[in-house]
Structures are given as C-alpha cells and as structure tokens.
Amino acid sequence: MIKHFGNLFIAAVCIGWFSIAAAAAGEEKVLYHINDSVVARAALGNIRNHLNATEDKVKIVVVSHGAGIDFLLEGAQDKNGNPYNIAVEELMARGVDFRVCNNTLKARKIDPKTVLQGAKVVPSGVAEIGRLQSVEGYAYLKP
C-alpha cells in the first residue's frame, strides 16, 4: 500500500511540475462559451480586451451552440445593425479560433455554408467544450 502512495505522490509531483512549466512558458488557453448571441458583441469585446492584456500571448477558442451560433452566420448583425463579421475576422487574424456546433446547424436546418469563412464546424458544441476543458486544459469563461 505504501508503494502505491509513493507512486501517486510521484505522479502528483510530475503533474504539478508540468503545470508550473506550462504556466512559466506563458501557455494560457481560454475557452469562451457562447450559447446566446445576445451576448456576442460584449463577448467579442471581452476577447479583444483579453488579447490586448496578454499581448496576444493566449490561445482563445470560442465555442458556440444553440442561439449562440447566430453571430457566426453570414450577414449577421447586432441589434444596432452592425455586422459581426468584421469583429470576428479581426479576432481570427489575431489567432482566435471560432467553432460552431453542427448539431445546432442540423436541428435548425441551417446550411453549414452560411457559417462565416474561417469558423470551424464541430460535431457537438457541448462535447467540444468538455474536450477542451478536460483533455486540453482550457480555462472556461462564460460571458
């Protein structure tokens, strides 16, 4: 039994060391979850501020599903008639990765070709969120 505790201790130390090494290397990974396009304009502003504060030294992925995909469709505009594509394209140019739920597209009968160019369609938005958090170690933010 003591042998098992020793192995667990060594594993915990290694995991902690790798986490510290990743943080020291400046490897920040953040997931923004958008499931309602009402918050999309504010979320895009938050992401821009995040990039500015970290001097673009952060990996940001935006995952959208449900009503949250609307701002990533061709011709989408906010309540003031301002198009979303300009802000989205600016953030893409800075390395932000936008992902759209295919389950939502299917359920709402939306042609995937209407998704903004550069945004990636993923099989499931919620599965992508879970994978990014549990497998890839992304921090979760919900604007």
Summed up:
This protein has 143 residues and is of the alpha/beta class.
Features:
alpha/beta, globular, 43% helix, 143 residues, Hypothetical Protein Ychn, Chain: A, five-stranded parallel sheet
Tell me the domain tally. Answer: 1
Q: Give the oligomeric state.
A: single chain
Number of strands: 5
| Overall CATH class | Alpha Beta
Strand order of the largest sheet: 4-3-2-1-5
Question: What can be said about the biggest beta sheet?
Answer: 5 strands, parallel
The mean pLDDT is: 88
- Total count of helical runs of at least 4 residues: 5
What is the CA-CA span between the terminal residues? 46 Å
Residue runs with pLDDT of under 50 for 5 or more positions: 4-24
Q: What is the 3D form?
A: globular
C-alpha Rg, in Å?
Answer: 18 Å
CATH superfamily annotation: DsrEFH-like
Tell me the β content.
Answer: 15-25%
Q: What's the architecture in CATH terms?
A: 3-Layer(aba) Sandwich
Order of helices and strands: HEHEHEHEHE
Structural class: alpha/beta
